Amino acid sequence: MDLLNVCVAGATGWTGEAVARAVLDSADLRLRSAVARSAAGADLGAVWGGPELGVPVFSTVDDALDDVDVLIDYTSQTAVGRHVRTAVVRGVGVVVGSSGLSGADYEEIAALAQAAARPAARHLPHWEIINYASATKPDAPSGTARELAEQLAAARRPEYAVDPEHTAGHPEARGASTAGTQVHSVRLPGYTLAVEAQFGLPDERLVIRNEAGTSPAPYVAGTLPAPRAAAARRGLVRGLDTLLLSGD
User: Fold this and answer.
1) For residue 141, is the peptide bond before it cis, meaning its omega torsion is within 30 degrees of 0?
2) Over the stretch 137-151, which tens digit does the pLDDT of each residue have?
3) Same domain, 84 and 127
4) Please, what is the Cα angle at 65 between 245 and 58, to 5 degrees?
5) What is the arrangement of strands in the sheet containing 29-35, beginning at the earlier edge strand?
6) What predicted TM-score, i.e. pTM, was given to this entire model?
């Protein structure tokens, strides 16, 4: 069996470590390298506090991509764009799990929300999105919420009885317009990540909500199906739903 060589950027982070461990346990994937600036030069196993794994840790994505087929990125909104561009130029497939790229959070909960929300958007003209995350999440909206807004926009634009820009008092209280949809970002302790799409008609309301638990398991499950497709396409694969619908 030909193994796909994988690099995980952010392999010492909450989700990145779980993804890297899942790659190590996979029968058809090989963890070739990792990226973590604070641990550059060390072996990833030692960084995790265990035996060495033969997986070198680099400070930059560019240094880590030799003999790599697919880059999986779980870093930050400030770094992911640079990492994707570097990998694409090097001819390396990319799987993005970080926020920061427009519509590029590669999370299973995002795919579930999109699969349910897109058909609703074709029939319900009014909707808004509420995006919940922990108090420490630095970006807003999350990539999950942004992706959902863009997917809804592909179906149609929402209708507003009062245009948010014409709201009296404080228009900013109506949220931020993302791909034509008003998105409200809540950042409080106790949340991991949740996205809620609310659709409204007179006398009825449809709420579609997906919420992550306290472990990175949903992100691992949403990431692992992607490396083969990313390697085959030699570029950025956007959206888990793209892979599911294409059969890759």
Assistant:
1) yes
2) 888 888 778 888 888
3) no
4) 120
5) 57-58, 29-35, 4-9, 70-73, 93-96
6) 0.57
